[in-house]
Amino acid sequence: MSFDVVIAGVGGQGNILATRVFARAAVAAGFGVLTSESVGMAQRGGPVASHVRIGHDLSGAIIPDGKADLVIGLELAETARVLPKLRSGGQVIAATTVIQPPALILTGAAYDAAAIAAHLREAVPGLLLIDAADVATRAGNRRTVNSVLLGAASTLGSFLPFPPELLLPALLESLPPGLQEVNRHAFTLGRQEAERIRTAGQNT
What we know:
Layout: E1 2-10, H1 15-28, E2 32-39, E3 47-55, E4 68-73, H2 76-81, E5 86-95, H3 102-107, H4 113-123, E6 128-130, H5 132-139, H6 145-153, H7 167-173, H8 177-200
Parallel strand pairs: 1-4, 4-5, 5-6
Antiparallel strand pairs: 1-3, 2-3
Helix pairs in contact: 1-7, 5-6, 5-8, 6-8, 7-8
């Protein structure tokens, strides 16, 4: 058995924390884990894509194109950028968050968020697209977008290779005590928002 996760965003969004949470949850369930990060100018808001490979007898930390079971996107365009990694029937949970790359800002080129969102909806049946920045703000800290999306991922149930209830303890164990409560709240609100969206039939 193997289960592959790609987590995409830009520097400063907490991509590596989300990677550690998935790894901790998988190890707690008795799986082996390999992780890898590809970073492009991360300190300047450049793209960051993390690979988490879960299973037994794993070979190689990089997920090939068309093999990822799950993509978690912390930023809209970066979600689209890693979409070739997704396998047929895979799941995508993505934030509507827009962070314009420095190159676009410098050149004045347009960032068409509506077109990117439409492309994701067309390409991914069952896409879960969340205004995670709004949910994080309601939780008390706009920087908890990663925890919001982890909460949303916990609604995937048996699609995940480990019990989804392992994600929250893994998140809290990865944080200093002073940040645990706000991230717990963000995780819970993210879970609730994912369930609300599915019930309302949005993003389809």
